[in-house]
Write a structure and sequence with these properties.
- With 442 residues, the protein is α+β, with helices and mostly antiparallel strands.
- It has eight helices and 13 strands.
- The protein has three domains: 139 residues, no CATH class; 99 residues, Helix Hairpins (Orthogonal Bundle); 146 residues, Histidine kinase-like ATPase, C-terminal domain (Heat Shock Protein 90, 2-Layer Sandwich).
- 53% of the residues lie in helices and 16% in strands.
- The radius of gyration is 50 Å and the shape is rod-shaped.
- The structure holds adenosine-5'-triphosphate and magnesium ion (MG).
- Adenosine-5'-triphosphate (ATP) binds next to helix 6 and helix 8.
Length: 442
């Protein structure tokens, strides 16, 4: 099955990618605007320089002795020249030029104003009625550098923005989903039989209807289960009295009936009625195990309860029951005493019924609330053992039974947060059967 995508991860990645993308688009647009503005500023400074240089150049040309010879003017400072210029007459003869002015920079044109070549931005202006021209050139490289610097400056915050927004969004989403996560924990923490409404707390408006729907569903489920359980319990209860009176009448009939085949048939009916009565008793126990009320408000001492129940069973048991209690005294757990008695009686009854005839059974309780019921007998194969806790599941035993005892014990154990485990052969032995229940200490 495909793993469910995490909403938190999706939001964090999606929003961060979105912010980064928006920032990049904004950087590109801003970069374009900055470049245009820079071009305008560079152009106006180019034009201004040309217009300032031209009168000075004319003065220089007219003042020198050999007005015809071209002259190269050194820059004022020793830094690299940003502009190259030349002054020429209408015939294209160069009268004056800057030190690094190379002829290939300037194309031989007389058009005034701005032009752009592959490498330079040029500006031409004229004076003295278009007899003297100045061409001034600025490498495009400078403009590109400036635009590049501006773009890098705009991109730099992105390096910080990505981790900050990742953390920020992660934190925000986590905080926003906190109530949803605690709602999930509340559902997970539920015991098997707990169908009471789940506290919705401060769930976001989008999730609240979902939580209401879940609660509604649980309520309907609870009602349906309640109806089923009370039907099972009531039917078993209603059967008890007529079964008991029929059994009594059958026993009277058997006493009155003459010896012979009729006696045998009456005995058969009596056995069937006893089975029916046992089954209704087990169904009532199962209904109780599946209903609520398996936990007691106050902790109960399992050692005392165990001793009492074993004492009671010893009266009717065909074999000895060995009881081992913890030396530490009391073992407290919050199980309902009736539920504990039903669970224990089923386990001991099984040991007496299905164990090797005549062999004593061992019942023990440890200080850590581990209850164990061990009996001798042939080992039960693992595949059979694995399904014995199912309802109406029986093993190879010859003894009577409906196959509900272990299902009742398992239901009670899980209802009180305990765990029932079966082992065969019994721990430390070559044969036998062991049922263990680990209760939770109060
Ligand atoms: N102590 C045990 N020793 C050996 N086999 C056992 C023991 N306990 C249970 N079993 C096997 O597990 C099966 C299921 O037990 P379970 O208590 O659920 O039903 P049952 O004892 O047959 O009938 P019921 O308890 O309803 O009268 C039994 O039929 C038996 O084969
Ligand atoms: Mg049983």
């Amino acid at each position: 099955m495909k793993a469910a995508a995490s909403l938190q991860k999706r939001l964090v990645v999606g929003l961060t990618l979105g912010i980064t993308l928006l920032w990049l688009v904004a950087t590109i647009v801003t970069g374009r605007v900055v470049q245009r503005e820079l071009d305008e500023t560079f152009d106006s400074s180019l034009q201004e320089t040309a217009q300032r240089l031209l009168p000075l150049a004319i003065l220089e040309i007219f003042n020198r002795e050999d007005a015809i010879a071209p002259q190269r003017i050194a820059p004022l400072n020793m830094q690299q020249e940003h502009f190259s210029y030349r002054v020429r007459d209408a015939g294209g003869k160069i009268l004056l030029q800057s030190r690094l002015a190379a002829p290939e920079i300037f194309n031989t044109r007389t058009k005034e104003g701005f032009t752009t070549t592959a490498t330079h931005r040029l500006y031409s202006a004229s004076a003295l009625r278009a007899t003297i021209f100045i061409d001034i050139a600025e490498p495009l490289e400078y403009r590109r550098e400036a635009a590049k610097d501006a773009t890098i400056a705009l991109l730099q915050p992105l390096l910080l923005l990505i981790p900050i927004s990742l953390c920020g969004i992660w934190l925000l989403v986590r905080l926003s989903l906190r109530s949803v996560l605690s709602y999930r924990d509340a559902i997970e923490k539920r015991g098997v039989g707990d169908l009471s409404p789940i506290e919705t707390g401060q769930l976001p408006a989008e999730i609240n209807p979902l939580a209401d729907a879940v609660n509604h569903l649980m309520e309907r489920l609870r009602c349906a289960l309640e109806a089923e359980r009370s039907f099972a319990a009531n039917s078993a209860h209603e059967l008890r009295t007529p079964l008991a009176s029929t059994l009594a009448q059958i026993q009277r009939l058997r006493r009155e009936a003459p010896e012979g085949p009729l006696q045998a048939r009456i005995a058969q009916i009596e056995a069937s009625l006893r089975d029916l009565s046992r089954l209704s008793e087990k169904l009532m126990q199962l209904a109780k195990a599946e209903g609520g009320g398996l936990l007691s408000e106050t902790p109960q001492d399992l050692a005392v309860l165990l001793e009492f129940i074993v004492q009671d069973l010893r009266g009717t048991a065909p074999t000895a029951i060995k009881l081992t209690l913890p030396a530490t005294g009391s073992v407290l757990s919050t199980i309902d005493p009736d539920a504990f008695a039903i669970l224990l009686r089923n386990l001991i009854e099984n040991a007496l019924k299905h164990g090797a005839p005549g062999a004593a059974i061992e019942v023990s309780l440890s200080g850590a609330a581990l209850l164990a019921v061990v009996n001798a007998g042939p080992a039960v194969p693992a595949p059979v053992l694995a399904r014995l806790t199912g309802r109406f599941m029986r093993g190879d035993s010859q003894a009577d039974g409906s196959g509900l005892g272990l299902a009742i014990a398992t239901t009670i154990a899980s209802g009180v947060g305990a765990r029932l485990t079966l082992a065969s052969p019994a721990t430390g032995k070559n044969d036998g059967f062991e049922a263990r229940v680990q209760f939770m200490l109060a």
